[in-house]
Amino acid sequence: MMYCMLFVSFVLINFSQSHIIQATKSINQTCLNFGHANDCYFYKCFEERFPCGSTYWILKWGEKYCTRMQKFLLNFDKNGQELIKKISICLTNKLINLRYYTMNKINCEKLQLAGQRIVRECYMNNSNLFCKALQGKNRNCFFELIDNEDRHDLTIVRTLLSVGQTCTPKQKLTDMRSTGKMNQCISSPMLLT
Length: 193
Known about the structure:
By secondary structure, this protein is mostly helical. The protein has 10 helices and 2 strands, in the order αβααααβααααα. The chain has helices spanning 2-17, 29-36, 41-49, 57-72, 78-97, 108-125, 127-133, 136-145, 154-164, 173-176, and strands at residues 20-22, 105-107. Helix 3 (41-49) packs antiparallel against helix 4, helix 4 runs antiparallel to helix 5 and helix 5 runs antiparallel to helix 7 (127-133). The longest helix has 20 residues, at 78-97. Keywords: Signal. Residues 1-18 form the signal peptide.
């Protein structure tokens, strides 16, 4: 029994250490400028500095959804566009202000948890706008932005439930699902400004 516990402890220690990444590139002011300008390339150059991989937050969530939000921006009404812009700006600003990019090393798992927390904070900080924006075709377009597998991610579900509870009337997860009219959300190239 004791050998089993030692083995599990050894595996857990090695597992957690294996996800600590030393910076592979020096701090690049151009990359920080991308973040300040809300340019999605910030996530790619962040990943170049700390190559956590495609299963971690920077590429799996940050870069992917930044790119999608820019691509689909014109499909939303004024409130939806404003929400997307504010969420995008909030995410990059928090990553920069919390100095994740300028660290010497990063734990990919802790960055993943921080990314999830930051997403929640950005949505909660913009909850009034979220409640206004979750109307009409915006509802369908927001639903289309999210991958089917990500719709079942508990952190996203909890974030949406928390934000929905701030609305009047309170929004349940079923109130945020698509009404099935997805053809009004055809992608249109657009850059956030």
